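From the methods appendix. Each design record in this collection lists the tokenized structure first, followed by the designed amino acid sequence. Records were kept in a plain field format so they could be parsed without special tools. The example shown here is representative of the layout used throughout.

RECORD:
FOLD TOKENS (151 positions):
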């Protein structure tokens, strides 16, 4: 990966909907080589896909919470399968330490969150303990990966 590839990745992380012609201008290449580089980065798995960033609050999802989950032993696969089917869970991480999983969850309000937790989350296979933490203010959203460490 060279500087041109790094520039492509930086620009695409800022605006994945940019046209190839505009991307080429921004990184200083002609459109054909730029498109070839983007395709090579996609084929290599560096670029996994493209998505729009949505405003959860504008869409009525006012609650953002993190749930720490502890499981009984031996039920991890069925738990993961169930979590993948729940759209309220926007991220799921297998963790080290005292908890097994950390989930990021969105809901319309506290009532909807309570119903989700009581009627769905706590009924998942092997759930032993859960602890919820609520986001009071989002200071930095997940975004661009740092590319400064690349050679």
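DESIGN:
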């Amino acid at each position: 990966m060279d500087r041109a590839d790094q520039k492509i990745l930086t620009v695409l992380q800022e605006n994945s909907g940019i046209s190839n012609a505009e991307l080429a201008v921004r990184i200083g290449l002609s459109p054909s080589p730029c498109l070839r580089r983007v395709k090579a980065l996609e084929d290599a798995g560096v670029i996994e896909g493209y998505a729009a960033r949505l405003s959860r609050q504008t869409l009525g999802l006012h609650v953002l919470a993190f749930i720490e989950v502890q499981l009984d032993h031996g039920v991890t696969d069925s738990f993961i399968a169930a979590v993948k089917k729940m759209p309220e869970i926007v991220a799921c991480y297998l963790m080290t330490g005292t908890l097994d999983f950390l989930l990021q969850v969105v809901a319309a309000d506290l009532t909807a969150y309570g119903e989700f937790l009581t009627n769905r989350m706590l009924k998942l296979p092997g759930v032993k303990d859960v602890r919820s933490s609520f986001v009071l203010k989002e200071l930095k959203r997940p975004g661009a990966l740092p590319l400064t460490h690349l050679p």
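APPENDIX NOTE: Helices lie at 3-14, 20-27, 31-43, 76-84, 110-119.
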